[in-house]
Amino acid sequence: MINLRGRVLNGKDGILEVELQESSEVCKNCHAHGLCGVDYKKKRIRAKNECNAQKNNMVIIKLNSNNPLKLAFIFYIAPLIIFFILYFLFVNFNTCPKYAFIYALAGFIVVYVGIYFASKNRRVYDRFLPAAIEKLKK
Question: Is 0.90 surpassed by the pTM of this model?
Answer without folding.
Answer: no
